[in-house]
Design a protein that fits this description.
This protein folds into two domains: about 60 residues, SH3 type barrels, CATH 2.30.30; about 25 residues, no CATH class. The chain has a five-stranded antiparallel β-sheet, with no helix packed on it. A two-stranded antiparallel sheet has the order 4-5. With about 100 residues, the chain is mainly β. About 0% of the residues lie in helices and about 45% in strands. It has no helices and nine strands. It binds zinc ion. Zinc ion binds next to loops. The site of zinc ion has 8 residues, from loops.
Length: about 100
């Protein structure tokens, strides 16, 4: 099960964007990668089209390996490790191991 979900705030642990944080835009569990807002920007050359009237060079997010990302807990506002709590119904809930709050 993927630890990081769309909408989470994460911190980058390594690479050129180390130390930066951003919101997760999309997760690709099969590839163990995610797109994070303003992280790992790559230069893209866009052809002129309906969506891109001007065309030319565009900055765009590139996929980042999940192992390079640490989830930031919205409650204690620090990068945290995750734990799981299994409910009576058998569903899993992510919890922050620092403050024990559900995520
Ligand atoms: Zn926390």
């Amino acid at each position: 099960m993927a630890r990081i979900k769309k909408g989470d705030t994460v911190v980058v642990l390594s690479g050129k964007d180390r130390g930066k944080s951003g919101k997760v835009l999309a997760v690709f569990p099969a590839r163990d990668r995610a797109l994070v807002e303003r992280i790992n920007l790559v230069t893209h050359f866009e052809r002129r089209s309906q969506q891109h009237q001007a065309g030319g060079v565009v900055q765009r997010e590139g996929a980042v390996a999940l192992s390079k990302l640490a989830l930031t807990c919205p409650k204690c506002r620090r990068p945290s490790r995750l734990g799981w709590v299994v409910s009576a119904q058998g569903t899993k809930q992510r919890v922050c191991r620092r403050c024990q709050n559900p995520l």
